[in-house]
Specification:
It is built from 14 helices and 18 strands. It is of the alpha/beta class and 418 residues long. It has four domains: 73 residues, RNA polymerase II/Efflux pump adaptor protein, barrel-sandwich hybrid domain (OB fold (Dihydrolipoamide Acetyltransferase, E2P), Beta Barrel), CATH 2.40.50; 147 residues, Rossmann fold, CATH 3.40.50; 64 residues; 85 residues, no CATH class. Helix 5 packs across helix 7 and helix 13 packs antiparallel against helix 14. The chain is globular. The two termini are 41 Å apart.
Length: 418
Protein backbone atom coordinates (compact mmCIF):
# COMPACT_ATOMS: atom_id res chain seq x y z
CA UNK A 1 0.00 0.00 0.00
CA UNK A 2 2.66 2.49 -1.03
CA UNK A 3 0.06 5.13 -1.88
CA UNK A 4 -0.80 5.19 1.82
CA UNK A 5 2.74 5.88 3.04
CA UNK A 6 2.72 8.41 5.85
CA UNK A 7 4.22 11.87 5.80
CA UNK A 8 4.24 14.50 3.07
CA UNK A 9 6.73 16.71 1.29
CA UNK A 10 5.25 19.73 3.06
CA UNK A 11 5.80 18.24 6.51
CA UNK A 12 9.33 17.12 5.73
CA UNK A 13 10.12 20.61 4.46
CA UNK A 14 8.73 22.28 7.58
CA UNK A 15 5.14 23.44 6.97
CA UNK A 16 3.43 26.56 8.23
CA UNK A 17 1.13 25.72 11.14
CA UNK A 18 -1.52 28.25 12.11
CA UNK A 19 -3.53 28.36 15.33
CA UNK A 20 -7.25 28.64 14.63
CA UNK A 21 -9.75 28.66 17.50
CA UNK A 22 -13.15 28.33 15.83
CA UNK A 23 -16.01 30.57 17.00
CA UNK A 24 -18.10 27.50 17.80
CA UNK A 25 -17.17 24.08 19.16
CA UNK A 26 -18.95 21.26 20.94
CA UNK A 27 -18.72 18.39 23.35
CA UNK A 28 -20.84 15.64 21.82
CA UNK A 29 -21.52 11.92 21.83
CA UNK A 30 -23.13 9.44 19.48
CA UNK A 31 -26.39 7.71 20.53
CA UNK A 32 -24.58 4.36 20.66
CA UNK A 33 -22.15 5.75 23.26
CA UNK A 34 -24.89 5.78 25.94
CA UNK A 35 -22.95 8.46 27.83
CA UNK A 36 -25.29 9.72 30.57
CA UNK A 37 -24.22 12.93 32.23
CA UNK A 38 -24.89 15.42 34.97
CA UNK A 39 -24.63 18.98 33.67
CA UNK A 40 -22.49 21.19 35.92
CA UNK A 41 -23.17 24.53 34.18
CA UNK A 42 -26.23 26.39 32.95
CA UNK A 43 -27.06 27.59 29.46
CA UNK A 44 -25.67 31.09 29.00
CA UNK A 45 -22.95 30.66 31.62
CA UNK A 46 -19.40 31.78 30.89
CA UNK A 47 -16.83 29.04 31.38
CA UNK A 48 -13.05 29.07 31.42
CA UNK A 49 -11.20 26.70 29.09
CA UNK A 50 -10.53 23.46 30.99
CA UNK A 51 -13.35 24.04 33.52
CA UNK A 52 -15.49 20.96 34.35
CA UNK A 53 -18.89 21.20 32.63
CA UNK A 54 -20.18 17.59 32.57
CA UNK A 55 -19.93 14.64 34.96
CA UNK A 56 -20.60 11.01 34.09
CA UNK A 57 -23.59 9.61 35.97
CA UNK A 58 -22.20 6.08 35.71
CA UNK A 59 -18.72 7.12 36.92
CA UNK A 60 -19.06 10.42 38.86
CA UNK A 61 -15.28 10.85 39.11
CA UNK A 62 -15.10 11.20 35.30
CA UNK A 63 -15.66 14.75 34.07
CA UNK A 64 -15.56 16.53 30.72
CA UNK A 65 -14.19 20.07 30.56
CA UNK A 66 -14.86 23.09 28.38
CA UNK A 67 -12.77 22.83 25.20
CA UNK A 68 -12.62 26.60 24.84
CA UNK A 69 -13.03 29.76 26.89
CA UNK A 70 -16.53 30.90 26.12
CA UNK A 71 -20.25 30.83 26.69
CA UNK A 72 -22.48 27.76 26.92
CA UNK A 73 -24.80 28.33 23.96
CA UNK A 74 -26.87 25.13 24.05
CA UNK A 75 -27.23 21.95 26.08
CA UNK A 76 -28.88 19.04 24.25
CA UNK A 77 -29.55 15.82 26.14
CA UNK A 78 -31.34 12.72 24.93
CA UNK A 79 -33.55 10.27 26.86
CA UNK A 80 -32.06 9.22 30.18
CA UNK A 81 -29.84 12.33 30.19
CA UNK A 82 -27.68 10.89 27.44
CA UNK A 83 -25.25 13.45 26.10
CA UNK A 84 -26.11 14.68 22.62
CA UNK A 85 -24.30 18.02 22.42
CA UNK A 86 -23.10 20.95 24.49
CA UNK A 87 -22.37 23.92 22.23
CA UNK A 88 -19.89 26.67 23.13
CA UNK A 89 -19.31 30.13 21.66
CA UNK A 90 -15.72 31.34 21.92
CA UNK A 91 -15.21 34.25 24.34
CA UNK A 92 -11.45 34.72 24.93
CA UNK A 93 -12.02 36.88 28.01
CA UNK A 94 -13.35 33.86 29.92
CA UNK A 95 -9.75 32.71 30.50
CA UNK A 96 -8.40 29.30 31.50
CA UNK A 97 -9.18 27.08 34.48
CA UNK A 98 -6.30 26.17 36.83
CA UNK A 99 -6.29 22.63 38.24
CA UNK A 100 -4.61 21.67 41.51
CA UNK A 101 -1.70 19.38 40.58
CA UNK A 102 0.22 19.39 43.87
CA UNK A 103 -0.69 15.82 44.87
CA UNK A 104 -0.22 14.37 41.38
CA UNK A 105 3.11 16.12 40.93
CA UNK A 106 4.50 14.25 43.92
CA UNK A 107 4.46 10.94 42.08
CA UNK A 108 1.34 9.37 43.64
CA UNK A 109 -0.21 7.16 40.92
CA UNK A 110 -3.68 7.39 42.50
CA UNK A 111 -3.42 11.19 42.51
CA UNK A 112 -2.38 11.20 38.84
CA UNK A 113 -5.39 9.05 37.97
CA UNK A 114 -7.71 11.34 39.94
CA UNK A 115 -6.26 14.42 38.21
CA UNK A 116 -6.74 12.98 34.72
CA UNK A 117 -10.33 12.08 35.57
CA UNK A 118 -11.17 15.52 36.99
CA UNK A 119 -9.30 17.53 34.33
CA UNK A 120 -11.06 15.88 31.38
CA UNK A 121 -8.00 14.11 29.94
CA UNK A 122 -9.12 10.57 30.83
CA UNK A 123 -11.10 10.23 27.55
CA UNK A 124 -7.78 10.56 25.68
CA UNK A 125 -7.27 6.87 26.50
CA UNK A 126 -8.97 4.13 24.51
CA UNK A 127 -9.35 0.70 26.05
CA UNK A 128 -9.34 -2.55 24.10
CA UNK A 129 -11.17 -4.82 23.76
CA UNK A 130 -14.26 -2.88 22.63
CA UNK A 131 -12.58 0.50 21.89
CA UNK A 132 -14.22 2.51 24.67
CA UNK A 133 -13.07 5.04 27.26
CA UNK A 134 -11.59 2.93 30.09
CA UNK A 135 -13.43 2.67 33.40
CA UNK A 136 -11.89 4.87 36.13
CA UNK A 137 -10.67 1.88 38.13
CA UNK A 138 -9.32 -0.12 35.19
CA UNK A 139 -5.65 -1.14 35.15
CA UNK A 140 -4.29 -2.04 31.70
CA UNK A 141 -1.82 -4.81 30.95
CA UNK A 142 0.07 -2.35 28.71
CA UNK A 143 -0.25 1.16 27.27
CA UNK A 144 0.63 1.93 23.65
CA UNK A 145 1.64 5.51 22.86
CA UNK A 146 1.16 6.25 19.16
CA UNK A 147 3.87 8.63 17.92
CA UNK A 148 3.09 7.49 14.38
CA UNK A 149 0.02 7.88 12.16
CA UNK A 150 0.00 6.32 8.69
CA UNK A 151 -3.50 7.32 7.58
CA UNK A 152 -3.64 9.32 4.32
CA UNK A 153 -2.87 13.02 4.97
CA UNK A 154 -2.46 12.47 8.73
CA UNK A 155 -0.38 15.12 10.53
CA UNK A 156 3.01 13.92 11.68
CA UNK A 157 3.16 13.37 15.46
CA UNK A 158 6.78 14.57 15.29
CA UNK A 159 5.48 18.02 14.36
CA UNK A 160 2.99 17.92 17.21
CA UNK A 161 5.78 17.00 19.66
CA UNK A 162 8.36 19.47 18.39
CA UNK A 163 9.76 21.36 21.39
CA UNK A 164 7.65 19.37 23.86
CA UNK A 165 10.17 16.71 24.87
CA UNK A 166 9.99 17.63 28.56
CA UNK A 167 6.20 17.42 28.63
CA UNK A 168 6.32 14.09 26.78
CA UNK A 169 8.78 12.67 29.33
CA UNK A 170 6.56 13.82 32.21
CA UNK A 171 3.50 12.32 30.55
CA UNK A 172 5.24 8.98 29.96
CA UNK A 173 6.30 8.94 33.61
CA UNK A 174 2.65 9.46 34.59
CA UNK A 175 1.50 6.65 32.29
CA UNK A 176 3.98 4.23 33.85
CA UNK A 177 2.14 4.67 37.15
CA UNK A 178 -1.19 3.65 35.61
CA UNK A 179 -0.06 0.16 34.58
CA UNK A 180 2.11 -2.63 35.94
CA UNK A 181 3.03 -3.58 32.38
CA UNK A 182 5.08 -1.85 29.69
CA UNK A 183 4.53 1.54 28.09
CA UNK A 184 5.29 1.06 24.39
CA UNK A 185 6.02 4.12 22.24
CA UNK A 186 5.36 3.32 18.57
CA UNK A 187 7.22 5.62 16.18
CA UNK A 188 8.60 5.72 12.65
CA UNK A 189 12.05 4.45 11.74
CA UNK A 190 13.72 7.83 12.17
CA UNK A 191 15.65 9.07 15.23
CA UNK A 192 14.25 8.14 18.62
CA UNK A 193 11.47 10.41 19.85
CA UNK A 194 12.84 12.81 22.46
CA UNK A 195 11.84 12.60 26.11
CA UNK A 196 12.55 8.89 26.63
CA UNK A 197 15.78 9.18 28.63
CA UNK A 198 15.70 8.01 32.25
CA UNK A 199 12.26 6.36 32.09
CA UNK A 200 13.49 2.82 32.79
CA UNK A 201 13.05 -0.51 31.07
CA UNK A 202 9.24 -0.50 31.30
CA UNK A 203 9.05 2.29 28.74
CA UNK A 204 10.51 1.37 25.38
CA UNK A 205 10.34 2.30 21.70
CA UNK A 206 8.89 0.13 18.95
CA UNK A 207 9.88 1.28 15.46
CA UNK A 208 7.26 0.72 12.79
CA UNK A 209 7.30 0.86 8.99
CA UNK A 210 5.60 4.13 7.94
CA UNK A 211 3.09 2.38 5.67
CA UNK A 212 -0.61 2.03 6.35
CA UNK A 213 -2.04 0.21 8.31
CA UNK A 214 1.09 -0.32 10.44
CA UNK A 215 0.54 3.03 12.17
CA UNK A 216 -2.76 1.91 13.71
CA UNK A 217 -2.69 0.97 17.38
CA UNK A 218 -4.82 -2.14 16.89
CA UNK A 219 -2.26 -3.97 14.77
CA UNK A 220 0.66 -2.93 16.98
CA UNK A 221 -0.89 -4.21 20.17
CA UNK A 222 -2.16 -7.33 18.36
CA UNK A 223 1.46 -8.11 17.49
CA UNK A 224 2.88 -7.44 20.98
CA UNK A 225 0.16 -7.48 23.65
CA UNK A 226 -3.16 -8.80 22.31
CA UNK A 227 -6.23 -7.59 24.19
CA UNK A 228 -8.73 -9.98 25.73
CA UNK A 229 -11.72 -9.99 28.09
CA UNK A 230 -9.42 -10.29 31.11
CA UNK A 231 -6.51 -8.40 29.54
CA UNK A 232 -7.22 -4.78 28.66
CA UNK A 233 -4.72 -2.72 26.70
CA UNK A 234 -4.91 1.05 26.24
CA UNK A 235 -3.70 3.28 23.45
CA UNK A 236 -3.22 7.05 23.40
CA UNK A 237 -1.78 9.56 20.94
CA UNK A 238 1.69 10.89 21.80
CA UNK A 239 0.45 14.50 21.63
CA UNK A 240 -2.10 13.70 24.34
CA UNK A 241 0.71 12.24 26.47
CA UNK A 242 2.59 15.53 26.12
CA UNK A 243 -0.67 17.24 27.11
CA UNK A 244 -0.74 15.17 30.32
CA UNK A 245 2.81 16.29 31.01
CA UNK A 246 1.86 19.93 30.42
CA UNK A 247 -1.08 19.57 32.82
CA UNK A 248 1.19 18.17 35.54
CA UNK A 249 3.68 20.99 34.98
CA UNK A 250 1.29 23.95 34.72
CA UNK A 251 -2.12 22.86 35.98
CA UNK A 252 -3.64 23.91 32.64
CA UNK A 253 -5.44 21.66 30.15
CA UNK A 254 -3.88 22.01 26.65
CA UNK A 255 -5.92 24.31 24.43
CA UNK A 256 -5.22 22.82 21.00
CA UNK A 257 -4.18 19.78 19.01
CA UNK A 258 -2.47 19.51 15.61
CA UNK A 259 -5.00 18.76 12.87
CA UNK A 260 -4.68 18.18 9.13
CA UNK A 261 -7.35 19.65 6.83
CA UNK A 262 -7.29 18.02 3.39
CA UNK A 263 -9.32 16.19 0.77
CA UNK A 264 -10.55 16.29 -2.82
CA UNK A 265 -13.13 18.98 -2.02
CA UNK A 266 -10.45 21.41 -0.80
CA UNK A 267 -8.05 23.52 -2.84
CA UNK A 268 -5.07 22.85 -0.59
CA UNK A 269 -3.93 20.89 2.42
CA UNK A 270 -3.28 22.80 5.61
CA UNK A 271 -2.12 22.09 9.15
CA UNK A 272 -3.76 23.95 12.02
CA UNK A 273 -3.77 23.87 15.78
CA UNK A 274 -7.39 23.99 16.93
CA UNK A 275 -9.40 23.14 20.02
CA UNK A 276 -11.04 19.72 20.56
CA UNK A 277 -14.55 19.60 19.11
CA UNK A 278 -13.75 22.39 16.64
CA UNK A 279 -16.21 23.39 13.91
CA UNK A 280 -15.17 21.56 10.73
CA UNK A 281 -16.89 24.13 8.52
CA UNK A 282 -14.88 26.97 10.00
CA UNK A 283 -11.63 25.03 9.51
CA UNK A 284 -12.30 24.44 5.81
CA UNK A 285 -14.66 27.09 4.41
CA UNK A 286 -11.95 29.38 3.00
CA UNK A 287 -10.22 26.57 1.07
CA UNK A 288 -13.30 24.64 -0.11
CA UNK A 289 -13.80 24.18 -3.84
CA UNK A 290 -17.15 25.24 -5.34
CA UNK A 291 -19.79 22.54 -5.40
CA UNK A 292 -21.39 20.04 -3.02
CA UNK A 293 -19.15 18.22 -0.60
CA UNK A 294 -19.09 16.34 2.69
CA UNK A 295 -16.85 16.97 5.69
CA UNK A 296 -15.52 14.01 7.63
CA UNK A 297 -14.03 14.02 11.09
CA UNK A 298 -11.14 11.65 10.47
CA UNK A 299 -9.40 10.36 7.36
CA UNK A 300 -10.84 9.42 3.97
CA UNK A 301 -10.73 5.77 5.10
CA UNK A 302 -12.25 5.83 8.58
CA UNK A 303 -13.73 9.32 8.96
CA UNK A 304 -17.36 9.96 9.90
CA UNK A 305 -19.54 12.75 8.55
CA UNK A 306 -19.81 15.36 11.28
CA UNK A 307 -20.04 19.05 12.09
CA UNK A 308 -17.48 18.75 14.91
CA UNK A 309 -14.00 17.30 15.36
CA UNK A 310 -14.21 13.91 17.08
CA UNK A 311 -12.59 12.92 20.36
CA UNK A 312 -9.78 10.81 18.86
CA UNK A 313 -9.56 12.49 15.44
CA UNK A 314 -6.73 14.64 14.13
CA UNK A 315 -7.93 15.03 10.56
CA UNK A 316 -10.64 16.88 8.66
CA UNK A 317 -11.37 15.47 5.20
CA UNK A 318 -13.45 17.20 2.55
CA UNK A 319 -14.91 14.84 -0.07
CA UNK A 320 -16.46 16.18 -3.26
CA UNK A 321 -19.87 14.86 -4.22
CA UNK A 322 -21.45 14.79 -7.66
CA UNK A 323 -24.84 16.46 -7.73
CA UNK A 324 -27.47 13.75 -8.07
CA UNK A 325 -31.05 12.88 -7.21
CA UNK A 326 -31.07 10.40 -4.32
CA UNK A 327 -34.71 9.41 -4.87
CA UNK A 328 -34.82 5.91 -6.35
CA UNK A 329 -37.75 4.49 -8.30
CA UNK A 330 -39.70 2.12 -6.02
CA UNK A 331 -38.72 -0.92 -8.09
CA UNK A 332 -35.01 0.00 -8.08
CA UNK A 333 -35.19 0.61 -4.33
CA UNK A 334 -36.78 -2.82 -3.77
CA UNK A 335 -34.07 -4.54 -5.81
CA UNK A 336 -31.39 -2.65 -3.87
CA UNK A 337 -32.84 -3.77 -0.52
CA UNK A 338 -33.25 -7.38 -1.64
CA UNK A 339 -29.79 -7.91 -3.09
CA UNK A 340 -27.44 -10.37 -1.44
CA UNK A 341 -24.31 -9.13 0.36
CA UNK A 342 -21.33 -8.66 -1.94
CA UNK A 343 -18.77 -11.47 -1.61
CA UNK A 344 -15.33 -10.84 -0.11
CA UNK A 345 -12.57 -12.39 -2.21
CA UNK A 346 -9.24 -13.09 -0.43
CA UNK A 347 -6.43 -11.27 -2.22
CA UNK A 348 -2.92 -10.03 -1.49
CA UNK A 349 -4.42 -6.57 -0.95
CA UNK A 350 -6.64 -7.98 1.81
CA UNK A 351 -3.59 -9.53 3.50
CA UNK A 352 -1.81 -6.16 3.33
CA UNK A 353 -4.89 -4.44 4.78
CA UNK A 354 -4.27 -6.44 7.97
CA UNK A 355 -0.60 -5.50 8.01
CA UNK A 356 0.54 -9.12 7.85
CA UNK A 357 -0.13 -9.30 11.60
CA UNK A 358 -3.42 -11.22 11.65
CA UNK A 359 -4.71 -13.99 9.33
CA UNK A 360 -6.85 -11.90 7.00
CA UNK A 361 -9.08 -14.44 5.24
CA UNK A 362 -10.01 -16.57 8.30
CA UNK A 363 -10.63 -13.47 10.43
CA UNK A 364 -12.80 -11.80 7.79
CA UNK A 365 -14.74 -15.05 7.36
CA UNK A 366 -15.33 -15.29 11.11
CA UNK A 367 -16.49 -11.67 11.37
CA UNK A 368 -18.78 -11.96 8.34
CA UNK A 369 -20.37 -15.16 9.70
CA UNK A 370 -20.70 -13.71 13.22
CA UNK A 371 -18.49 -16.47 14.64
CA UNK A 372 -17.39 -14.62 17.77
CA UNK A 373 -15.46 -17.55 19.23
CA UNK A 374 -13.24 -17.96 16.16
CA UNK A 375 -12.85 -14.20 15.66
CA UNK A 376 -11.74 -13.83 19.28
CA UNK A 377 -9.19 -16.61 18.89
CA UNK A 378 -7.83 -14.94 15.73
CA UNK A 379 -7.32 -11.55 17.41
CA UNK A 380 -10.50 -9.54 16.75
CA UNK A 381 -10.62 -8.19 20.31
CA UNK A 382 -7.52 -6.09 19.62
CA UNK A 383 -9.26 -4.27 16.76
CA UNK A 384 -11.79 -1.47 16.35
CA UNK A 385 -13.57 -0.03 13.33
CA UNK A 386 -10.59 2.09 12.27
CA UNK A 387 -8.46 -1.06 11.92
CA UNK A 388 -10.97 -2.53 9.44
CA UNK A 389 -11.31 0.62 7.33
CA UNK A 390 -8.54 -0.27 4.87
CA UNK A 391 -10.02 -3.75 4.40
CA UNK A 392 -13.37 -2.12 3.61
CA UNK A 393 -11.61 0.12 1.10
CA UNK A 394 -9.80 -2.65 -0.79
CA UNK A 395 -12.72 -5.10 -0.81
CA UNK A 396 -15.70 -2.77 -1.22
CA UNK A 397 -17.45 -5.07 1.25
CA UNK A 398 -21.18 -4.64 1.77
CA UNK A 399 -22.16 -4.66 4.57
CA UNK A 400 -18.94 -3.08 5.78
CA UNK A 401 -16.53 -5.19 7.80
CA UNK A 402 -16.07 -2.35 10.28
CA UNK A 403 -19.81 -2.30 11.02
CA UNK A 404 -19.91 -6.09 11.42
CA UNK A 405 -16.91 -5.95 13.78
CA UNK A 406 -18.59 -3.26 15.90
CA UNK A 407 -21.76 -5.35 16.13
CA UNK A 408 -19.74 -8.38 17.23
CA UNK A 409 -17.76 -6.39 19.82
CA UNK A 410 -20.96 -4.92 21.27
CA UNK A 411 -22.50 -8.39 21.61
CA UNK A 412 -19.38 -9.77 23.30
CA UNK A 413 -19.30 -6.79 25.67
CA UNK A 414 -22.97 -7.31 26.56
CA UNK A 415 -22.33 -10.99 27.28
CA UNK A 416 -19.32 -10.13 29.46
CA UNK A 417 -21.38 -7.59 31.42
CA UNK A 418 -24.31 -9.98 31.95
Amino acid sequence: MDFLASGSKEEKAGPTIETEITDQCALFAQPDDDFRVEVLVARGARVAQGMPVLRSRRHPELTLVAPVAGEVAAIDLGPGRRLSRVLFFHVPEAGRHQHDVAAAGGGDAAAVRALLLSAGLWPSFRSRPFGRIPAPGETPAAIFVMALDTRPDAPSPRLALDGREEDLATGLWALAGLTEGPVVVCQDQGPDIGGMAGLGVRCHIRKVAPVHPHGLAGFQLAACHPAGPERTVWDIHAEDVAGIGALLRTGLVPETRLVSVAGSALRERRLVRCQPGADLRALSYDIARPGPHRLLSGSMLDGVESRWLGRWHRQVTGIAEASRDDRLHWFSAALHRARRPLPIIPTAALDQAFGGVLPAAPLVRAIASNDAETATRLGALSLTEEDMALADYVTGASPRLSAMLRGMLDRIAAEEAA
